[in-house]
Specification:
mainly alpha; Serine Threonine Protein Phosphatase 5, Tetratricopeptide repeat
Length: 124
């Protein structure tokens, strides 16, 4: 018979292992590996943008909810590539999809719009 002292840690360990095996609520499609590769080698950031764009498009097409932060990440990648209007578009999607990001995304959008106005129009 297993003693009570041994039973409690065994059950706690089992509960932790079961919790770690729970499926994710969202589909990330290798985002973390692609982001890491992009940080290690900045020439891979374009591949990350393409991968994220494809993944987001597939999620939208299937009516699945895009994981939190992916619209914002895609917007930032477009901003870094010089396309502030596409960045605004994706920041707007992030804001509208995830209300908890509203303050940050609204601030980013307003800053980009002010910058566009100061430059005399929209950048592609």
């Amino acid at each position: 018979m297993i003693s009570r002292l041994l039973l409690i840690p065994t059950l706690a360990t089992l509960a932790l292992l079961t919790g770690c095996a729970a499926p994710s609520l969202y589909q990330w499609s290798g985002y973390d590996q692609a982001l890491y590769a992009g940080y290690k080698d900045t020439t891979k950031m374009e591949a990350l943008r393409t991968k994220l764009e494809t993944h987001v498009g597939e999620m939208e097409k299937s009516k699945a909810k895009v994981a939190p932060g992916l619209y914002a990440e895609l917007g930032t990648l477009y901003l870094q590539a010089g396309s502030s209007q596409k960045a605004i578009d994706f920041y707007t999607k992030e804001r509208d999809t995830w209300p908890e990001s509203r303050v940050l995304m609204t601030s980013l959008i307003q800053n980009l719009e002010r910058k566009q106005s100061a430059q005399g129009g929209n950048k592609p």
